[in-house]
Amino acid sequence: QVQVVESGGGLVQSGGSLRLSCTASISLDDYDIGWFRQAPGKEREGVAMMRRRDPATHCADSVRGRFTIARSDDKRTAYLQMNNLSPEDTAVYYCATYRILTDCILLKVDGADLDSWGQGTQVTVSS
User: Fold this and answer.
1) What's the sign of the alpha-carbon dihedral 49, 92, 11, 127?
2) Cα(25)–Cα(7) distance, rounded to whole angstroms?
3) Could you give the CA distance from residue 45 to residue 40 in angstroms, rounded to a whole number?
4) Could you give the CA distance from residue 91 to residue 37 in angstroms, rounded to a whole number?
5) How many Å apart are CA 36 and CA 59, to the nearest integer?
6) CA 6 to CA 4: how far, in whole Å?
7) For the chain, how many helices (H) and strands (E)?
8) In terms of C-beta density within 10 A (0-12 exposed, 13-18 middle, 19 or more buried), how is residue 124 classed?
9) pLDDT at 6
10) What is the pLDDT at residue 109?
11) 89 phi/psi in degrees, rounded to 5
12) Cα Rg for the chain, rounded, in angstroms?
């Protein structure tokens, strides 16, 4: 089973950028990748997903045009580049690996195809 660790979170001013990393214990080549976030008092929200052979998909309209999901060339790291951040983006961000990830809705639940996820990384955006 792959293990992943998120990093790159922090405190940033509104309009700033952060790049989150999801470092895996083995190659991510055999997994679909998803990023989701959890803010206090709110339900889990899917942010973006990347299937093994498909282009990246944004799962939240609010991040379209601002967030980009990508994998490293060595397939051991997934990234979430976040630009033009706003206070509404404040949350703990998690990356997760899936045996198969067919829809953004699956990022909101711990389904049967969820393989692993990390401890999360806190992103705080000040106004």
Assistant:
1) positive
2) 14
3) 12
4) 6
5) 9
6) 7
7) 0, 11
8) middle
9) 98
10) 87
11) -85, -5
12) 13
Coil vs helix vs strand at 90: coil
Q: Kindly give the confidence (pLDDT) of every residue in the chain, 127 residues in length, as a single tens digit, with 9 standing for 90 and above.
A: 899 999 999 999 999 999 999 999 999 999 999 999 999 999 999 999 999 888 888 899 999 999 999 999 898 999 999 999 999 999 999 999 999 998 999 999 888 889 999 999 999 999 9
Return d(Cα 17, Cα 2) in angstroms, integer. 28
> Token digits for 35?
């990023």
DSSP assignment of 18-59 equals: EEEEEEESS-STTSEEEEEEE-TTS--EEEEEE-SSS--EE-
Q: Which pLDDT score, from 0 to 100, does residue 85 have?
A: 98
In whole angstroms, give the CA distance from residue 88 to residue 122.
Answer: 13
pLDDT confidence of residue 8: 98
pLDDT on residue 112: 85
Q: Is 60 helix (H, G, I), strand (E, B) or coil?
A: coil
